[in-house]
Amino acid sequence: MASGFECDSGCVRTYVHHVSRILRQTTGGCQPCPPGGYYQDDIAKVSNSPNKVECKKCNAGTYVPLGEGVSSDDCIVCPEGTNKTIHAGFRACFCMDGYARTDRFNVCQICENDVLDCYGKDYKTLRKGYFWNWEYPGANLTEYKSFVANLMTESANFDPSTTKYSGDLPNVHSCPRSESCINNNTDIEGTCETGYEGIMCSKCISNYYIVLGQCLECPELVYSILEVIGILLLVICVYVLLVWQYKKQKSKVLHSTKRALIDMFISRLK
Fold this sequence. Notes:
alpha+beta, 3-stranded mixed β-sheet, 22% helix
């Protein structure tokens, strides 16, 4: 006999044995109400969908920390830093804007400065123009990514083993060229602009070269050849122009000298 059931008359009828459990017909078993803003005080509540939670909702701003709530009295006030004006969902309420957490079912703390983005989510990411190095002692990128993925799961199917982040967050540094650190918030590590890589996005990737602090894409060979030819032609043109001007100036000087000698000779004859 499945756990959580009692039978009579040859198991013609089944009843939920524990008030805190609900029956999902698709699984044929009893499931507890999940942690968060849910409880159940009815008997034999049936769910026809494997993903639908047939539990009652706690009042806005309250939740059941460990789940299996059997009464509205099990719903307690959400911790500090959370938004208590809406339903808790499958967590200890969502964080207020400008706050983040390291535990799905614990407090939210204010983001200390403007270099981190904590708006519209319960975790921290980088703002544009900044960089953090996850090789920092005590930081654990793999664990933090798993924790963020957990927070982004807004259903009872979240992984109970990744609801907390126990490590440290790395220090944040300003990028030498702020435009290089674009930081797409879907990437926890931070994102460099196309053509950049490395610490603080300060290096050029392969097939790029640096000019005045910017990484530019290397041109194709044919364009490089044409560019060299163009530069050579320009140099030749400048050289020819300078030679022509020099000869022209020299010719004027010679003409002036001859004219002066003739005038001097004529003046003496007079």
